[in-house]
Amino acid sequence: MKPMKPIFEYFNLRGGDQPPNLGFDKPFKCLVLIREDVTDTWRDAMSRWLVASGCLYMMA
Fold this sequence. Notes:
- The protein is an alpha+beta fold.
- The chain is built from 1 helix and 2 strands, in the order E-H-E.
- Strands 1-2 form a two-stranded parallel sheet.
């Protein structure tokens, strides 16, 4: 029997961090929790990264 992939992947990024290559093989949903102040520029860059990575639905 093939092992199941986890339902959730967790990434902890701080303001200014470079996002990882997600490598998902299909569109995905994302939950974003912001726990510290970040610049609008960085937040916009993260939104563009999620869309480019295949994110179809995001909840913040």
